[in-house]
Design a protein that fits this description.
CATH class of the largest domain: Alpha Beta
CATH superfamily of the largest domain: HAD superfamily/HAD-like
Order of helices and strands: EEHHHEHEHEHEHEHEH
CATH topology of the largest domain: Rossmann fold
Largest sheet: 6 strands, parallel
Strand content: 5-15%
Number of strands: 8
Strand order of the largest sheet: 5-4-1-6-7-8
Structural class: alpha/beta
CATH architecture of the largest domain: 3-Layer(aba) Sandwich
């Protein structure tokens, strides 16, 4: 059984800034921060790590209670932000997922920095949630490497009793972080230049496959032969 773990933002879809809007609205409403005063990187990172940086830069204690307060406020605002912003599913995504799901030797999961419920709401909004039965998410972990480990453990639990994991583990993402965390779990890595990183930047991570869009499904499927 092969395991394919996919990132969300920049890989499967773009929300048009809905996530960052929900972040900013939550900081304003829940913590009295009218605007984000510093540039914090979002791409390739966990929601928890992003929030920890925002708290630190704005003088908010990075406590568990403040994280849970932020998480609840963010989720309460995310669906409205998704409806307000013009996002879209990225090229080739539907076709690739259809091809992978049609195989009886592939299990599809997520490896994302989004909190689980945020991932679900984004993917439901774009009619993609039904493809994925398991994953690693950004609820509990700051680092993507730890999320990758959790995703692989969830994959093995999912396929237990169906088929042992003797095939490839494939990580598909749009950042150098996706490649790096994939390597920590022994995965073959596919980098796609549909996020913020260019094809030249991604090539520096030495992925096994580098594509402009997921329309190049043949190159990805070749990893499973």
């Amino acid at each position: 059984m092969h395991i394919c773990l996919l990132d969300i933002d920049g890989t499967l879809l773009l929300t048009g800034g809905a996530g960052q809007t929900a972040f900013a609205e939550t900081l304003a409403a829940e913590f009295g921060i009218p605007e984000i005063l510093t540039k914090v990187a979002f791409a390739g990172r966990s929601d928890r790590a992003i929030v920890a940086d925002l708290f630190r830069h704005h003088g908010v204690a990075p406590s568990e209670s403040n994280w849970q307060r932020f998480r609840a406020g963010y989720l309460n605002r995310l669906e409205a932000a998704l409806a307000k912003h013009r996002g879209y599913v990225l090229p080739g995504v539907g076709e690739l997922l259809t091809l992978l799901a049609a195989r009886d030797d592939v299990a599809l999961g997520l490896l994302t920095g989004n909190v689980r419920e945020g991932a679900r709401r984004k993917l439901v909004h774009y009619d993609l949630w039904h493809w994925f039965a398991f994953g690693g998410f950004g609820d509990d972990h700051l680092e993507r490497n730890d999320i990758a480990t959790a995703a692989l453990a969830a994959a093995k639990l999912h396929v237990n009793g169906k088929s042992p994991v003797h095939g490839e583990v494939i990580v598909i993402g749009d950042t150098l972080t996706d490649i790096a965390c994939g390597r920590t779990i022994g995965a073959r890595c596919v980098a796609v230049a549909t996020g913020h990183a260019s094809i030249q930047e991604l090539s520096g991570g030495r992925p096994d496959v580098l594509v402009e869009t997921l329309e190049d499904a043949a190159s990805i499927l070749d990893l499973l032969t």
